[in-house]
Amino acid sequence: MLPAERDFYLAQSVHSDPGSAEKLAGLPQGPDELALLVRHLLIHREETGRFGCALPESRYRSEAETRYVDDILDIVLRLDDAPLTAPRRPLDRFAGTCRDFALLHCALLRHSGTPARIRCGYATYFAEGFHDDHWLTEYWHPERGWILSDPQLVPDVRIESPYELDFDPLDVPRDRFLVAGEGWRRCRSGEADPKTFGVSVLGLMGLWMVRANVVRDLAALNRAEVLPWDSWGVGDAGRDGEKGTDEAGLALLDEAARATVHADFDEVRALYRDTPSLRVPETVTSYQSYDGECEIRLRGDPQDGES
């Protein structure tokens, strides 16, 4: 890894910045230990049944709309003001999505001196024969290169219905998680059926969902870690895929997919900087699950990859 790439993925983004260093005192340093810590601070809003509990409706609807790690940690500490290393009951954890697990893990890795980023793509290990929309952490190992980690699936002693995996969630095989660009390539070439890509529990699927994730993954590689339902530019297919794209748009998505699969640092930085319809704008369209479509103005400078 060249110094410029290392420095880029060591630096916090506006989304991953944890805020005051005081609340991070005494945290572990290793990627696996940090993933376990994240598992004990967060719960996916759709997995509470696995823990034998249920969220209040207000929390179920609102917490996953939290965009920034400093705000996530503030909620964690408001629920339980013990140090972040202290054990927490499931309902005393932040209730978010896979993106929040990946982003918090990424933030703590950067804080501890490990280059990290998040990846948007599709997991094959939730529903047989289906590629479920999922986000992971990717961190740099000095001997092995980039490693995929799924902190949401780290075993938890409090879970009553554990996930059944045939691999280590802290070292996810590349054939069990496809980055969005690889999913796009397979769908476009006919190797895969677009109807097997989406969110199985919600019955949402199709090439339009992969299209949006290609653009989000390019943004994430540029440290613009938006919410899973944020859309803009060529990636905005509308709430149910009603917005199409022309041949030029498809060609641009093909280029973005190829670039993100290879993830060459200079290429993904240049493509993001130089292509307005791929770059995160100051205001994105957010297709929120419960509050409907709205326009959200982001913090920071998205043109610099730091929105």
TrEMBL record:
Identification of the protein by name: Transglutaminase-like domain-containing protein
Highest rank taxon of the organism: Bacteria
Ranges in a coiled coil: none
Gene3D superfamilies, per database record: 3.10.620.30
Stretches assigned to the Transglutaminase-like domain: 94-151
